[in-house]
Each structure stands twice: as structure tokens, then as C-alpha cells.
Design brief:
By secondary structure, the chain is of the alpha/beta class. Helices cover about 35% and strands about 20% of the residues. The protein has 13 helices and 14 strands. The strands form two sheets. Strands 10-9-11-1-12-13-2-14 form an eight-stranded mixed beta sheet, sandwiched between helices. Helix 9 runs parallel beside helix 11. The radius of gyration is 20 Å and the shape is globular.
């Protein structure tokens, strides 16, 4: 048994289109492949050593590298390509019915109830938009009127942006909580997201005070089973938000990927058993949606450097898992998530030889592996990989 699992999610780092990508308009998407093709290619020594470039049937496959870890890619069983769907599937929750999306904005009855219950006299936008673009397009009008900016994307999200000097952060959170309570039934979006921003050097920029209000998942998942069994489950980054606190004990928010890694390392110093579950969101929010290939490549290389510290702190009875939750190809059309396989890397210090995991049928194999390891109830979906690791 591994006493401790360090589970790191590289948010949006997909590894090539899934067989059903056409249904999602994502034929040709390949996040890692396109990022690796940028410039001279990725310089990610640790990820390479763990098996990233050894994953077969991918555009980055290199047969000349001999890894030390377990490696493969996983298919998504659920109907979606977003953060909530991906993370929930990892812990054993299959989303069969896609969360609702609003390509034409939210209906009048929703917005009218939003105004009535928040006490606001108006709002701006209510459309599909890029978050960084819309705050600069409407930031001045928002500052003048005090109306929050409402927007969505191809994902199931209701996003509320506000200048922290116009609508204080705590008031924005209160507005988001009201919206979360309104968006039920047929309009139950996966997430309501607070998007605070400020004006800096004449330009509106987001702050790190983002907060996600997800739907509450069923307690039938690996995190809940572990917590009920008395294991410590720690969420780093937006993990606590994604699961609405269900199954999470300790949690801490982060400013960016490096902060996320530093906080993960801090927990490795103080938490010697259970699960440390980390989400690194910048790949998605800062570089994927912004279609910044160079930034994405730089982010992966910076993460790879941080991995040196993780590997150095690992004990003999630790298991490291690194994977993604969906794709967000910065070289692809549009600004939305992409329906892709996710890379899966697993490593512990007693591994005697590399393990080719092949293609996993579902992200839930990861949660099933963790469940078997800690001897807790297995989720309804997923097959444990523990025997392969040993």
C-alpha cells in the first residue's frame, strides 16, 4: 500500500482527439502535439523520464526514450469536455447527460430572476465571450454603471465579472451564490464563476480572487469514501471548488501554477498520508483559452522544473499521479476546450521497470486505483491499475 498519493492535474493538457471528437467539433485538436511542435519542441526532462513521450499512438511518441514510470492515455466516458465533467469522472462519477450551454446567452426569465434576487438594477453582455476580451471591451461601462458583466462560453458556465473597486469581492461572491441557487433544474450549469478584475496600467486584468461555484457532486465518489474512512484528503487550487467541498478536508486556493506547486510541496512536508490533490489551472485559463502556444510551452517547462522538487521529496511509499482533465488546444480554432484523450503518468520509487498502461477506457481508472490502494469502496466505474504498478 502507498501511504500517500500526490495527484497533480495539468488542467487542459490533452494528448490528441478522442474518437468522438467530431461530435464536439474538435477533429484535429491535439494540445500536447501542437505545443510540442512550437519552436524547438518541449524541454521537459522529468515528464519525458516519467513517460510522456513514450505514450503510443500520439503525435509526440518517441520510441527512443526509455522511461522509468507508468504511462498511457485515457478516454473520457462522460458526455462533456469541461473541468467538472473530467474531474468528477476521475473519482468515479460518470456524467451521462451533458450540462446545459448557452450559445445565445441566458434566457430572459433567468436574467430577470437574477436581477430580482440580487437587487441589481442591470447587467452587461449576457453572451458568449472571451473573459479577457470582454472585461476590456465593457470595463469602462461597468465602472460607470456598476452593472456586472455576465458571459458564458462553449462550456456550461455562468460567469460574473466585476471590477473589485466597483463591486467588492465579497459582494461578488454573494451575487454568485445567489446565481448558483437560481440556476437549478433545466438551467443547472456546471459552474458559476466569480471573475474579479482590476485596472492596471490602463488595462483591465483579472485577479487571483476567482471563485468557482460548482454543482454539488454525489457523495458516491472516491474522495468521499476516503474521507469517511478517516483518510486526509487535501485540495490544492480549485479542487475544493470543483467538488463543492464534498470529500475534501483541508484546502487552499492558489494564485498560479507555481504557487500551486509550492503549496503542494508544503503539504508534502506536513501531510505524510492520504491524498494531496492539486489542480494547476493556468494551462487552461491563461494559455489554452487565450490560444497562447508559446505561453503554454513555457508553462509546461516551468512545471517540469517544479517536478524536480516533488521527486526529491517523494518517499518510498508515495505514489505520484499526473494527468489532465480535458484538452484546450492553443493552436486550435476558437477559444474553447477540446475533446481529447488525457495523458496519464504514474510513478513510485520502487518501480523496477517502466509500465505501458496503454489506452484506459475511462478517467475513473485513476480513482479506482486510489480506492484499491487505500482499501476504500470502489466507485461504480473504473478499473484499478495498482497491480500493474507493483
Amino acid at each position: 500500500m502507498f501511504k500517500r498519493v500526490i495527484w497533480i492535474i495539468l488542467d487542459s493538457v490533452g494528448i490528441g482527439e478522442l474518437p468522438d471528437a467530431e461530435r464536439f467539433g474538435d477533429v484535429g485538436a491535439d494540445t500536447l502535439g501542437h505545443v510540442n511542435a512550437y519552436g524547438d519542441g518541449l524541454n521537459v526532462t522529468n515528464l519525458s523520464k516519467l513517460g510522456l513521450f513514450s505514450i503510443e499512438n500520439t503525435s509526440i511518441y518517441n520510441p527512443n526514450i526509455t522511461p522509468i514510470g507508468a504511462y498511457g492515455k485515457a478516454s473520457e466516458l462522460s458526455n462533456g469536455k469541461d473541468t467538472t465533467t473530467g474531474h468528477w469522472e476521475m473519482v468515479g462519477i460518470e456524467t451521462k447527460k451533458a450540462f446545459p450551454t448557452y450559445p445565445n446567452g441566458f434566457p430572459e426569465e433567468v436574467m430577470q430572476e437574477f436581477l430580482e434576487k440580487t437587487g441589481l438594477s442591470g447587467y452587461l453582455a449576457n453572451c458568449v465571450a472571451s473573459g479577457t476580451e470582454i472585461i476590456n471591451r465593457l470595463g469602462d461601462e461597468h465602472t460607470r454603471t456598476g452593472y456586472p458583466i455576465i458571459y458564458t462560453s462553449a462550456d456550461s458556465v455562468f460567469q460574473i465579472a466585476a471590477n473589485e473597486d466597483v463591486i467588492p469581492v465579497q459582494r461578488l461572491y454573494e451575487i454568485c451564490e445567489i446565481a448558483r441557487n437560481i440556476l437549478k433544474g433545466e438551467h443547472e450549469v456546471a459552474r458559476v464563476i466569480a471573475r474579479p478584475f482590476i485596472k492596471e496600467d490602463g488595462k483591465y486584468v483579472r485577479t487571483s480572487n476567482r471563485h468557482d461555484y460548482s454543482i454539488k457532486p454525489t457523495t458516491d465518489n472516491v474522495l468521499s469514501y476516503m474521507k469517511e474512512a478517516g483518510y486526509r484528503v487535501t485540495g490544492v487550487g480549485k479542487i475544493n471548488d470543483i467538488f463543492c467541498g464534498v470529500g475534501i478536508g483541508d484546502s487552499v486556493h492558489t494564485k498560479d501554477n507555481i504557487d500551486g506547486m509550492e503549496k503542494t510541496l508544503d503539504f508534502m512536508d506536513t501531510q505524510h498520508e492520504g491524498l494531496i490533490f492539486t489542480n494547476l489551472v493556468e494551462f487552461d485559463s491563461t494559455w489554452g483559452h487565450r490560444r497562447d502556444v508559446a505561453g503554454y510551452a513555457g508553462g509546461l517547462e516551468a512545471f517540469d522544473q517544479e517536478l524536480n522538487k516533488v521527486l526529491a521529496k517523494m518517499k518510498d511509499d508515495d505514489l505520484l499521479i499526473i494527468n489532465a482533465d480535458h484538452g484546450c488546444d492553443p493552436a486550435f480554432k476558437g477559444t474553447d476546450h477540446t475533446r481529447e484523450y488525457i495523458p496519464v503518468l504514474m510513478y513510485h520509487k520502487k518501480m523496477e521497470k517502466p509500465v505501458n498502461l496503454g489506452i484506459l477506457d475511462t478517467f475513473a481508472d485513476l480513482g479506482a486505483t486510489i480506492a484499491e490502494n487505500f482499501g476504500v469502496k470502489k466507485p461504480d466505474i473504473g478499473t484499478s491499475l495498482k497491480n500493474k504498478l507493483l
